[in-house]
Amino acid sequence: MARKKIALIGSGMIGGTLAHLAGLKELGDIVLFDIADGIPQGKGLDIAQSSPVEGFNASLTGASDYAAIEGADVCIVTAGVARKPGMSRDDLLGINLKVMEQVGAGIKKYAPNAFVICITNPLDAMVWALQKFSGLPKNMVVGMAGVLDSARFRLFLSEEFKVSVQDVTAFVLGGHGDTMVPLARYSTVAGIPLTDLVKMGWVTKERLEEIIQRTRDGGAEIVGLLKTGSAYYAPAASAIEMAESYLKDKKRVLPCAAYLSGQYGVKDMYVGVPTVIGAGGVERIVEIDLNKAEQEAFDKSVGAVAGLCEACINIAPSLK
Ligand code: APR
């Protein structure tokens, strides 16, 4: 059986890390794409030269022509610019929206059967626009945010409780931003919900609230430390987990920005919810019960995402 083909659209910090991880995990042959000619070719060659040492088999190539992604099974999109000082969120939105238009056209032409994972920010609006620009089925286009946000929550909880990260599960819903909704009731240590751990005296409500806030600010904390860029190791690992679930039909239950057509009372928007990812793409949206406070926080988050989509429509009316 021929190897699977993974196209990485955007070969910056996350794109390069994605290529490295996809190689190490032998997920398939990898094509790096970028408008900055030379970068994808250079990174591809560098990572390919690590394969004899690491012992993995994968072809890694770089290109700045969309024809190179032809027939890709998975496309992971990180193309775009990050916010720079003095740039408003709308400026960023406008620039990256144009990038999504180009990327959507490239995928539509050369990889219409791919499973597409978008990482470019502002995530929930960009993945929504990318699906519309590409015209791919809605269950085949998802956004990576929840796996990363949950991973951050899991790490902070494992450090707090001094237990293995493997035994901590966490659920984060809503948009990828300040309004994300980490759910204490559905996050556990070896199956014990955080709400019970509060009762058991493992953590106070106040301390748990601090950890939740640190999770919400997780991206900003890294930007503050790096100063010249944003997180890339954990975002890349998170997207690879989603790609692997699709390629190997693992049917993992993963929180992703998925297209909602009425679930959770939301229509025609991408919002972070639990999904099942398998060979059929997003095979299922898991609808969990939310209590009043959780529903309010979720609605607020949905409102923020809706605002971003409106801003996109103002720039590109064809998205309506
Ligand atoms: N087509 C293809 N590639 C593009 C385009 C385009 N139109 N515009 C920019 N790029 C490329 C840049 O040349 C750069 O190599 O996208 C790459 C982005 O890489 P980085 O700037 O290193 O950004 P990275 O840290 O990888 O983050 C990418 O993911 O998490 C989000 O906010 C983050 O939106 C950002 C994205």
TrEMBL record:
Enzyme Commission (EC) number: 1.1.1.37
Domain Lactate/malate dehydrogenase N-terminal: 5-143
Residues where NAD(+) binds: G10, S11, G12, M13, I14, G15, D34, N96, I119, T120, N121
Binding site for substrate: R83, R89, N121, R152
Span of domain Lactate/malate dehydrogenase C-terminal: 148-302
Active site: H176
Listed Pfam families: Ldh_1_C, Ldh_1_N
InterPro entries: L-lactate/malate_DH, Lactate/malate_DH_C, Lactate/malate_DH_N, Lactate_DH/Glyco_Ohase_4_C, Malate_DH_type3, NAD(P)-bd_dom_sf
Entry keywords, A to Z: NAD, Oxidoreductase, Tricarboxylic acid cycle
Catalysed reactions, semicolon-separated: (S)-malate + NAD(+) = oxaloacetate + NADH + H(+)
Similarity remark: Belongs to the LDH/MDH superfamily. MDH type 3 family.
Function: Catalyzes the reversible oxidation of malate to oxaloacetate.
PANTHER family: L-2-HYDROXYCARBOXYLATE DEHYDROGENASE (NAD(P)(+)), L-LACTATE DEHYDROGENASE
Protein name: Malate dehydrogenase
Gene that encodes it: mdh_1
